[in-house]
Amino acid sequence: MLQSYFPVLLFLVIGALIGVAPMVTGYVVGKVLGTIRPDPAKQSPYECGFDAFDDARMQFDVRYYLVAILFILFDLEVAFLVPWAVVLKELGLFGFTSMMVFLAILVVGFVYEWKKGALEWE
Amino acid sequence: MMELQQLLQLPLQLMTQYLGTDLAFVGWSLLKIVCVIGPLMGGVAYLTLAERKIIGMMQIRIGPNRVGPFGLLQPVVDGVKLVLKEIITPSAANTGLFYLGPAMVMIPAMAAWAVVPFYPGFVVADINVGLLYIMAITSMGIYGVIISGWASNSKYAFLGAMRAAAQVISYELAMGFALIGVMMVSGSLNLTEIVEQQGRGIAGGSILSWNLIPLAPLFVVYFVSGLAETNRCPFDVVEGESEIVAGHMIEYSGMTFAQFFLAEYANMILISAMASVLFLGGWLSPFPASIPVLGAPCFLWWVAKVAFLLFCFLWFRATFPRYRYDQLMRLGWKVFIPVTLVWIVLIGAWMQTPFSIWK
Amino acid sequence: MTLALFYLFAAILVLAALRVVTARNPVHAALSLVLCFFTAAMLWMLIKAEFLAISLVLIYVGAVMVLFLFVVMMLDINFESLRKGFWRFFPVAGTVAAIMLGEMLLVLTSRYANLSAARLPEPAAGFNSAKALGKLLYTEYFLPFQLAAVLLLVGMIAAIALTHRQRKNTKFQDPADQVAVKAADRVVVLKMEAEKPAHAETDTTHTGEKA
To answer: How does this chain assemble (chain B) (predicted)?
Structure first.
């Protein structure tokens, strides 16, 4: 089994190399040709020609966390659905019903979110 | 066909003869990886040209036509230009993370291809949980965007990254639920088996037995979520050049920018390839097997399906105006997730009845 | 080969875990934690738990750590000030850690755990961990499975109760209403008799329109 995963590992390593190679090429070519000429104006953060007023890292609306938390919960639901979906043909009616109960409980949560307006983006 | 299979195994046999079994396995894997990544890179380069040409035609323009015949050398020249451009490191940025961002975008876009099948046996790694692997690897793509947006220390980049994160995770859910439907009917996570399963059934291996028809709503959800995952039009609020001037990519130049660009196009091809494998029967022919030549499964069918879906990506870009952010979130959470859930329950119930077409 | 990979991944895991606690920048710490989860998944893969390994990447790397990164990136916390008391609290924290380590060692080295004799069973050819899990989880472990659903439900409700605030006086559009709108709601087409004022013909010539 592990043998079939070895190419995946190799692919990850090569993917990492490809992820770095273009930047390294660009940097080396830039150094050789001397195109890398930093100056303070060029290196300042882009802000439509102004100097940046303050640090760009600011507090954000709590709504983004809510989306992320709900995402985790639903992602877990997907993870629970995967083994069920794979064996559904062999599970029979009991296995099917068991998942329907699971989904029903979570749909309660989904309806609650919906009614509370947590899914609104105002 | 048999001779072709044997011919393709020839390098493996030669390597085994001269290098021993272990090294030959490594060499063979490397060769397969090169055979996937090489054409992929070519595909990415020419997809950029195809995009400009096709959108040009749709807008009654010519598109690039100066470099080489029909502008065919344009991607090469673009590449040279990007290599020669200066790489700027903003002084306010966290240098290490600033360069980690583009790499983290690129790695998942490449690594996902490890399990994509092109034809029976033509896959780098034929693993049991291929579909889950794709889901896991593509969910890592978001890190590159968040890291580059934060490390740039620019307001536009940060805004773009936060938008991207919320958008991508919302649509990842819809995509995950859509994939559950495919797993249910095929009873497997192995992508080759998922394609083979679509060749069986009462319709006898034509377009009628593909997942496309019984899972039509899931296909639409998957493909539209794919548009949103790759931040393509009409869901490109992440770049939104008229409001946040390219978002998380704004501080990048030259090859660092090119990496975001390459990864976006590689992801487009990946989404198309996955949609073709999961819903459109991969290499299976749309005609019944009884028709000679046309009815036979062939790698070219796979190419044709992927090419058509890629054309749809470009077509949508030329057709639809950009979604507003609240509409976009509403579509993901309030339309796609309920639709997929209902369809999963329906298909599941259908499979419990004697009328199930997936025995 | 497997052993060499195990030591490689284990070394990466330990180093990344150390970076999580020692990194000055919280974003670096969170990213080190991502690396931790990823290498832990690799280790699980080495003991042939393919479904669990990839689920770990899918859930912890793909979902949980995104939230962590959100939090450390968007909360404007001054982490330097949080760090100040480090050496003052170190003795207490160190004692707690030492006790935990001792307890774990006691359990793991005891006769009952019998770790030295334990061997991972070799999965049979064609064994599919996702299918094996599925066959057990939804039938034999019905009740724990439903409890998981309840747990998720509680999580959802708690998240909304804690973070959701209905903002007053915001002006926003409801896309559902916008989509549902019909032409008849916006434009009223009135049927009326054509009226012809006496000077109508001279007026049209001034507009310069040609049909």
So the answer is: NDH-1 is composed of 14 different subunits. Subunits NuoA, H, J, K, L, M, N constitute the membrane sector of the complex.
